[in-house]
Specification:
Number of strands: 0
Shape: elongated
Radius of gyration: 20 Å
Distance between the termini: 62 Å
Number of helices: 4
Oligomer: single chain
Number of domains: 1
Order of helices and strands: HHHH
Largest sheet: none
Structural class: mainly alpha
Helix content: 40-55%
Strand content: under 5%
Length: about 60
């Protein structure tokens, strides 16, 4: 158990933390964002959603 007072590090200014808006992305998330877990070995090949989208579109085009 810590006995000293908890303090923010200087790189985390309190005014920026307190200015946040809780749930500001929640509506957009509920409207259609889909999260999918990707295996760690695939994360190296597909680092972001654009890379995944491109690969899936190429796969679908090849199947047609």
């Amino acid at each position: 158990m810590k006995t000293e007072k908890d303090e923010l590090r200087k790189e985390y200014p309190e005014e920026r933390i307190l200015s946040g808006v809780r749930g500001k992305h929640a509506k957009r998330f509920r409207e259609g964002t889909k999260l999918v877990a990707i295996a760690p070995d695939l994360q190296e090949l597909f680092p972001d959603s654009a890379a995944v989208d491109k690969a899936l579109r190429e796969y679908l085009a090849a199947r047609r």
